[in-house]
Amino acid sequence: MDPVHIIGAGISGLGTAHYLAKQGIPSIIHEVGSYAGGRAACIKSGDHSFEIGGKNFSSAWPRFNALLEEFNLTEFEDQHPGFHIVMNDTLVALQKSKTLAGDLRLASAIGTRGAFQFRNFLAFARQNADKLNYTSGLIEQVEKTWDHTTIDNHFTKKLATGPLRLFSIIMGAAEPSELYPSLMMLFASGFGKGSHHAIAGGIGQFHDNLAAEKDIRFGSRVTRILTHNGHVAGLELKDENGAHVVPASRVISTVPANVFKHLVELPAYGRVAVEALRYFPLAMINVVYDAPVFKEGVHSIMFEPGAPLGHCSANRLHTPHHVRYTLSGKAAREILDKPDHELVRIAEETFSKRMPINANRTHVHVARHSGGICGYAPHFTGLKKDLLRSVESISGLEIAGDYLEGHTMEGCLTSADLAVSRLLANTTERSQAA
Ligand SMILES: Cc1cc2nc3c(=O)[nH]c(=O)nc-3n(C[C@H](O)[C@H](O)[C@H](O)COP(=O)(O)OP(=O)(O)OC[C@H]3O[C@@H](n4cnc5c(N)ncnc54)[C@H](O)[C@@H]3O)c2cc1C
């Protein structure tokens, strides 16, 4: 059987290969980089492994948890019980399991009106958690009611620049003035749903299991998906052998939308949809110190608007000496072209204003996600239908990735599973028609 060609070895690409293998279908993954995992990779540096992006998962995610079970990965570590947000120049706690005292402190920081808005917003997200996704109708209703303007225009200023910015920065690397309510509702539905953990020893083990026995061609950049008479005909590649073409009749692209749009000519309505998707760049700095840096019950800090550091947290609850600094948001984007040592200095300087660092660095790793994190688009449900319809117009082509079902590892696996199902359904339909 001819292999399916997959573009990209991030979690969407690895997941796609895995779901194909379950159906007995071979695949070849073309990956431009030298490692698997993409934006959720775990990079070896000296005697440390650094998680440079996605690592936390929810016990409520069906596909991710099914794979953990299949791979016999059973050792997990709990995620932080909450966040501290810099508001009015102090650290205000936002606990996932709420307490009256916590609520009162938060209410005094965001005001009574803001507190009511926040309570109503979270209640809606929690009550409808199972229906808030890009495959049910509810998110479309949210889009119709709310997506006429950005998040900041819907809520009090203190709420939008405080607790709600937490969602936009951590999950979208963007400001509330740059994202739309439907996406925030999607994020919030996951907040407090199930329990949140990370894999002991790192997310790399998950990728290693997915990658096992797969044919991954590292250092292979796909530059074009070739089509002929509306069918996929091949891939134009650049690898160690230079530029060349490989014949292919079935291709699943799993690269981000901002890469995919350059690989193939879509009908106009598909181009409009893919162009509407926004990505926001960020840098992730892992620093290990020789003494604890987080103290006094603080494990995770969300910084104020205008700070170059969006968010930072202890890598695990029990590692207060290992800090993940995330340079995200508008102010961070202005400095991302600075050299690594400057980014580290700026991150530490910002952090020290809230918590002094009385420790020395022992390991540093700087990762730049210059392609960015997906901020979706207003009224995305309709755009997604157009995008999928435009891809369907090229037979043998499918897409998976962070821009279709939510940009979490579960969203990526869902998109991979659905792409495989669509590809197989279309192949069967074509062979029956012939
Ligand atoms: C800082 C950060 C923290 C995050 N935290 C979490 C979290 O805690 N939990 C969670 O669930 N999610 C988290 N996410 C989101 C999650 O990591 C991403 O949604 C997910 O990793 C995206 O995977 P992907 O396979 O769709 O894309 P990518 O990981 O981007 O994979 C695409 C792959 O394609 C390759 N590629 C690109 N162009 C080409 C080409 N032309 N030819 C061949 N190969 C190509 C790339 O090198 C890459 O390996 C986080 C993301 C970031 C950035």
Which key features would you list for this structure?
single chain, 434 residues, alpha/beta, FAD/NAD(P)-binding domain, Polyamine Oxidase, Chain A, domain 2, 2 domains, seven-stranded mixed β-sheet, five-stranded parallel β-sheet, 20 strands, 37% helix, binds flavin-adenine dinucleotide
3D architecture notes:
- This protein has helices at 11-22, 62-70, 100-127, 138-146, 157-161, 163-172, 181-190, 204-211, 257-260, 268-276, 330-333, 340-352, 380-392, 409-433, and strands at residues 4-7, 27-31, 42-45, 48-51, 56-58, 76-78, 82-87, 90-95, 196-199, 215-218, 221-228, 231-239, 242-247, 251-253, 278-289, 300-302, 311-314, 322-327, 361-376, 397-399.
- With 434 residues, the protein is an alpha/beta fold.
- The protein folds into two domains: 4-74 and 201-276 and 377-433, 3-Layer(bba) Sandwich (FAD/NAD(P)-binding domain), CATH 3.50.50.60; 80-194 and 278-375, Polyamine Oxidase, Chain A, domain 2.
- A seven-stranded mixed beta sheet has the order 8-7-16-17-18-15-19, sandwiched between helices. The protein has a five-stranded parallel beta sheet with strand order 10-2-1-14-20.
- α1 (11-22) packs across α14 (409-433).
